[in-house]
Amino acid sequence: MAPYPTDEKGHVYCPYCCRKFVNRYNLKVHVRDKHEDNSMDLNCQICGKTMRNQSCLRVHMYHHRKQRLEEAGIL
Ligand SMILES: [Zn+2]
Ligand SMILES: [Zn+2]
């Protein structure tokens, strides 16, 4: 049984935004990227803010680190 709605040509549709994909694998990647709250890694461990993706989180964490160094008087 298909976990996602498909049409007669085998295209699959995102259940969240109805975008069409040529196969289930592409859809799975899309859902994971755009719709799933897919991990605690994407929440900032320091302030709890949710980041859209890993690189946002990395930049965000960099600011925290810099802030901490500043508070400690190192910078
Ligand atoms: Zn979608
Ligand atoms: Zn933070």
TrEMBL record:
Residues 12-40, 42-69 form the C2H2-type domain. Keywords: Metal-binding, Zinc, Zinc-finger. One of its GO terms (molecular function) is zinc ion binding. It comes from the Eukaryota. Pfam families: zf-C2H2, zf-C2H2_4. SMART domains: ZnF_C2H2. InterPro entries: Znf_C2H2_sf (IPR036236), Znf_C2H2_type (IPR013087). This is C2H2-type domain-containing protein.
